[in-house]
Amino acid sequence: MKKAVLFSLWGVVVTPHVAQTFQKFEETTGISRGFIKNVIAKLGSENALYLLEKGKVSLTQMIPEFEAECQKIAADQGLSLPAQFSAQKLFSDIGQVEFNKPFLDAAAVLRRHGISTCVLANIWVDDTDQRDGVARILSVLESHFNLVVRSCYAGVRIPEPDIFTSALEKLALKPQEVRAVWLDVDEESIKAAEGLGMTAVQVKDITEALKEINKLTEIEVTGDLQPPSCDPENVSHGYVNIKPGVRIHYVDLGDGPPVLLCHGFPESWFSWRYQIPALANAGFRVLALDMKGYGDSTDLVTFLDKMGIPQVILVGHDWGGALVWNMAQFHPERVRAVASLNTPLFPVDPKTNPKEKLKAIPIFDYQIYFQNPGVAEAELEKNLERTFKLMFIASNETVRFLSGLFVGSPEDPPRSAILSESALQYYIQQFTKSGFRGPLNWYRNGEKNWHWMCSRPRGKIMMPALMVTAGKDPVLLPAFAKGMESLVRQQLCYSTIMLTLHSPPVIITIITTFEILTLSCSRPQTHRFMEAYLRCGIKKKKSDFLSHRSTSMS
Questions:
Q1: Which pLDDT tens digit goes with each residue over 209-242?
Q2: Which helix (H) or strand (E) holds 475?
Q3: Of 223, 285, 322, 478, whose CB has the highest number of CB atoms within 10 Å?
Q4: What residues form the membrane-spanning segments (predicted)?
Q5: Domains in the chain with CATH codes
Q6: CA-to-CA dists, residue 232 to 227, 273, 388, angstroms
Q7: Are strands 246-253 and 285-289 parallel, antiparallel or unpaired?
């Protein structure tokens, strides 16, 4: 039997409940406790709030009607509303909510296990100047649940039975063929759901409610938590022609200051699938590129020009890290702040060819192996499933004698826990189309890039900068980042994570992404970063955002 879990918006997915906001408003304005609830009850189903929730009127139309209703009921009771009474202020307060992260996490786990999730929301068309609060709520809901049913568009409100049946129909589920669970704090809606044959859970304690979800769905929703990720089929894709025959593909999500994510080898925009929604939810426009193996930083400038973006926050991993450092050095006017995962800013030495340096360091043997066109391509493209399974398995072995990258590796390796089957198939699909020639050209263009960089003036990095090393990376060792302070003038922040980040970045890079953003934005925005951290399951104190182990260079 199919299963679905339906969540009430107020008091479950977000807090506080509307009724709690009513009570707080009554206290602060000096109105008797329960007055607003009494107004709604006395006027029955045609009261202004219910008409608003059913979409009969917009919020600006409703406010004077609601205030008139309150004035009338107050007069009937021989009362006088205080001068500070303002329905506009009340509904602005209602939009200032926090998300109940445990329920967002539970919804994500349920969706990964194929269970349909839905939010039923008694909500309105907000056309006021304070409408950003409702917009923020809806944006987060749409990215976390299969379906969001808004009463103002459905024409019915909780606890009317039609809103439940409508939700199941939109999920393509028939009531008699599905086990539907409903969560709410309101007793009236609990009874309504049970009357339709649904299993209802009245939420009085979050922990107990989650236990009920575990029991009813037979899924442990509090374990194996991951942040929401991008579905390639449900995210905006775009293309920009850089020059004849060269086109860059990118994913675009969110609205706000632009953040550009640059992946490493052998990856794609998909490597940032966990970071993209987290950054977008925090109030940023996120652009994740499919990096071309034969481009340079001027290609990235052309991309920004054609997108009409004057300046960005750059975050790179592996080869993407090398690119963002180059951008910060050679095109500083286009970079607001810069962060690199694993790849340090290496000083350019005009006297020593980088290829000779590679030959002297055994852990870089694989880069020498990659130099011969066609050789590495043949090995990597022979069996893409095997290639990506091995790429996502940590290994301390180096490519000795240049005999092959995977020599001695099993023909049918197990899939790593950090690589889901769907993610594996997506990588296979992408590289079936593109092959490895472009990505391998990152390694083959090193000498040309070195000559170009030697010809350019090189100053210190002047904008805020973050360097993140991975304590268990056997290739890009944390020691390689030592001395970077001399290359950065303003502020260099360090983080060391005891994981292998030279493998494609998954969850942990969320931390580093937000660190650089706190450097580049004003302090009043701190709460946005904290909220985004919490959505991703990362525990941080406010002080973590206001101070960090850093080196200031003046």
A1: 999 999 999 999 987 667 778 889 889 999 999 8
A2: none
A3: 322
A4: none
A5: 2-13+97-217 (3.40.50.1000), 17-94 (1.10.150.240), 232-348+460-552 (3.40.50.1820), 354-444 (no CATH)
A6: 16, 9, 18
A7: antiparallel
